[in-house]
Amino acid sequence: MVVSSGRPLRVIGLLSGTSMDGVDAALVEVRGTGDRLRARLLDFRTFPFARGDRERLRAAAGRGPKDSAERALLDARLGELFARAALGIARRSGGVGRVDLIGSHGQTILHLPARRGGATVQIGSAARIAAATGVPTVHDFRAADVAAGGEGAPLLPITDYLLFRSKAEDRVILNVGGIANITVLPAGASWERTSAYDTGPGNALIDRLASIFSKGKRSFDAGGAWASRGRTDGDLLDRLLEHPFLRRRPPKSTGTETFGDELARGLAREASRARMSAEDLLATVTDYTAACAGREIRRATGPGASVYVCGGGARNRALLRTLAREVAPRAVRPLEELGIPADAREAVGFALLASEFVHGAGYPMRRVTGARSAAPLGSFTPGPRPFRLRLAARGK
Amino acid sequence: MVVSSGRPLRVIGLLSGTSMDGVDAALVEVRGTGDRLRARLLDFRTFPFARGDRERLRAAAGRGPKDSAERALLDARLGELFARAALGIARRSGGVGRVDLIGSHGQTILHLPARRGGATVQIGSAARIAAATGVPTVHDFRAADVAAGGEGAPLLPITDYLLFRSKAEDRVILNVGGIANITVLPAGASWERTSAYDTGPGNALIDRLASIFSKGKRSFDAGGAWASRGRTDGDLLDRLLEHPFLRRRPPKSTGTETFGDELARGLAREASRARMSAEDLLATVTDYTAACAGREIRRATGPGASVYVCGGGARNRALLRTLAREVAPRAVRPLEELGIPADAREAVGFALLASEFVHGAGYPMRRVTGARSAAPLGSFTPGPRPFRLRLAARGK
Predict the structure, then answer these.
(1) For residue range B229-246, what is the model confidence (pLDDT) as tens digits?
(2) Is the ipTM of this complex over 0.85?
(3) How far apart are CA A96 and CA A89, in angstroms?
(4) Are A152 and B128 in contact, with CB atoms under 8 Å apart?
(5) What's the gap between Cα A159 and its chain centre?
(6) Beta bridge partners of A391
(7) Is B381 within 8 Å of A383 when comparing Cβ atoms?
């Protein structure tokens, strides 16, 4: 009844991101563990939320008073939706009966960093996922890190290391999400020499400006077209580059409270007073985003490194042009060239974290999240299939 | 590094009950699994909450709006308090280094039965417990049952079966908590013939009347002394025994919304109009509680059965006197006679459920909670110690 260690695991990775648009599901075949791990993406899809579910999620997220029963029922509902996504992604590949394991990140509805008490909440009941799919589920990946004094984020540097490191090439994975962050993978380096941190602004700042200037009609600058029509204001750019976050030494993290709505509104007001066009401000802020990332990449790597870009920013051509200039002679490439579609990176990542959990593999996180521990990340909820769990011999 | 299957596990069971007074902790040595399981209680203690923590818990419990950040931080805080209780109970027996496993029920702050959507919430972060003690922790025992369509309660019939069944004697475990419930263990019967359900009112009704008549100075009728001074009103008792819950066939469950504050206030008003004394009403309601339990016990067992009583009601002498009359010639005995202090039953129970989880043992729950599944109950959060997890071979 029990898996022989040699056979590859078929693992589904599930998550819903900060945009709360739907469930990303990846089906991955994973062989081995740690430095011998090999992964192959079999399928990837996004299962959009219905409008009603999205609205319930948005209402449940963040601080402040939230109805207790609604939250418990939403946790169950989201578990059902995650289970449906798992059933959906498995269907084209023989059904969940052929799946060994699910790794579900869930949906973050609250994240308090360590300096605010340290707590992180993901909903999407794993018990529901395991019951509805019959597949054992690993979940709550961030809780162990937070409990060990870490920030609970980022976790994907582990799977960037497992998937994307090279013996021959210094690599940087640049993810331009709401905030931009990098994973630095020196050629031939072990996990202990991998580092990862935020570089500064990401899409959140650009998106907010696009929304302000379009009076809410656009939620982002598609392809960077708007920025491409403008001219960067060098003085403003120099001033923005004075931000103290950019002088801090890594590891470091920031958020949209620093590079988001508030900064966007301040800049829009300033541009209006100075009769600066929307195009010019978007060009400046897009260059700023690229320059911040470029500066950290130059600090962290030699000129032979390659930069692999993912996240929404990978589709912003204005950003990519400036980035290429900033990091030259380093090559800038899409993450796809390493065999994983950029959109699938996170879902694949949580599939791999689940597989690593089952192998009992932990990673020292001090340089990434600040956690004191190397405990395997996650909790395991079995569902109906048999399993065998053996505990370590206790001390004296 | 890995436990050989023959060695007994040292397991700590933790819970905080509906009274929210503190953490009950039991240290148990467990050998084997299922019908071959043998348990020995090594230590039991209650670690009271400080007043501030108790007040935070009471504010967090129930339906309605609750601050999101406060709840996340309370989950973490309670995890720390549960960890301290585990460290405390282990200290007298060689420290947590000698403990293999923790089973933590946590603190229930919301329980919506299946007919209200089915969700159950226990707080007390298992990641915090595992990080602070270094001991792997099994938790969220009720979620799998609810996810499989069950009520999520009662779960302790499993451990009553494991601990208290007899080859020679028909046994009933009667727990007089807020609501009274029984586990029926026919002599020599397997788990499949074990049944468990609520019998009707428990301490909640008596406690509320004690509080009303003492104008809040007493929270219960100590030892049943108040009831012992009164005389039962036979007409009122007969009328109370007409309650439709008592005619329903098991399995069945009820709650304090039926046998609690509202009924107590109605009865107190009626007694006041009829110039009935507090003593007489308490005598009547205490007899009512015993009569409801007695009726179900007579239905469920032959005259040779023994009834083992636990819960707060086991200290109510008026209740025990009536119960003995109601179930005669069946013997009424304290649960202690079966080797487990009545106060420790629940904490020992969650230690055993954790041990059964590690062995991958599940129990069909249809006759107890209505759940469709026999999946092992709980989730596993490892902490820093190594472990080995082997999954079932997947289907075709």
Answers:
(1) 999 999 999 999 999 999
(2) yes
(3) 9
(4) no
(5) 11
(6) B387
(7) no
